[in-house]
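Submission sheet (multi-component)
Chains listed below:
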Amino acid sequence: MIEVQGLSKVFGDPQSDKAVKAVSDATFTVDAGEIFAFLGPNGAGKTTTIQMLTTLLKPTSGTVRIDGLDPVAKPLEVRRRFGIVFQDPSVDGELTAYENMDLHGVLYHVPRKLRTERIESLLKLFELWDRRTSLVKTFSGGMRRRLEIARGLLHTPKILFLDEPTLGLDPQSRNQLWTHVKHLNVEEGVTVFLTTHYMEEAEKTAQRVAIIDHGRIVAQGSAQELKAQTGADSLEGAFLKLTGTMIRDEASSSVDQMRQFAKMWSGNRR
Amino acid sequence: MNVIYVLWLREIKRYLRSRAQIIGSLAQPALYLLVLGFGFGAVFQQAGQGSYLQFIAPGIIAMGILFTSVFSGIGLLWDRQFGFLKETLVAPVPRLTIMAGRTLGGATIAIIQGTLVLAVCILVGFRPESWAAVPVALLFMALIAVVFAALGTAIGSTLKDMQGFQLIMNFLIMPIFFLSGALFPLDNLPGPLHVATRLDPLAYGVDGLRGAFIGVNHIGVLLDVSVLVVLSGLFLVLGAWAFSKIQV
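Outcome: structure written.
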């Protein structure tokens, strides 16, 4: 379902010393119907990889095939085939849950009748139907996440990308979210590509795991295989053996800076 | 078409839901109108130019449209921050469609806002010469709205953070407003200032509005319309190009 060959992304001029190699020579495949976890420390290249798979970034070199299609050559075709839940929320807080879903349905050309049916069943599945007319800005973090996943599934994608879907959620919401994801994988046969920091979640949910560090894939296989390979007794142990225990610093993005700025402003107002 | 419509509708819904913001954004034009309109009224009358309130009301309406439409374009920055921009960028629709929906939404809001400012003007004593001219005035309001909503989209697509936004406000939008002749007549100006006002797109909008409302033109209705139509086309292309270059 996803085939990646020698994928690299360099930010900045490749000839200068300021160039940053975010991803280098990554190769992996994700089979149809599989749950695949992509693990790595902060700044390892997880999000950059997802952005290249989802047509948001052009690779510097290497090839990507999503359901047999090239995201660079056929972006619209590829976009129809996946749903994505970003690391940062991307629902519109000023619209209601239902309006967010409906807008998504129109963007993805889901016919009206099918749209109303799918929205109802997905909002019910994710236990948001009772709150469908509430503005999303009144939702808790867990509810927003559920809404994002429900929305990502509205156009019946073949692949669901989840970039750190459980970041900042309490254990109850996390547990519930993974139950949903597994259920969808089994019931609808959706291929899931996820990144997470929580190793036990990856171990419980994913059939196969790839570990990326400094833009390179350092290991891949089932959690069992990785544990055997490193002699660790948990996936977390294997992860630390493969990537070391040093803490990584990530350069803040312009979005982070703006968020900081917005905080300053709203602080003044209060 | 459907996609343009829902994105347009989103802008309208967001606008109508922010009641406090609507009232807040009427406060500034009202302040200009009351303080300047009555403050300079006596001087203006002595100079033999008639009622200053009659004179600046079209300028203040243009101001309301200018700010609302530019802000709506810069709203892209907020969508970038709150993530909604990404939702539209990964959708299987051409960027041009997304840009069109947003920009038309912004322009529509600006027209509504302009109409509200007109109502405020009438409330404090402004009287159009003839009501028959209102459709012409509406045409100019729409043209101003499209020109600056498209410019706003172009700016919003290039900016990465709020600091840049302050620069744009101080060095682009405020000069556009002050040089437009919204507050003073555009004749007998010193040479350089005269040239600057002729380079200001809003000058043609203000002139057209004033011509429609009180029958006073410095530039000429035909030239006003032509300049605004050409600029809408130009800025729409510019906005679409800038929007297509956005990287997440």
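Remark: Chain B touches chain A through 32 residues (CB under 8 Å).
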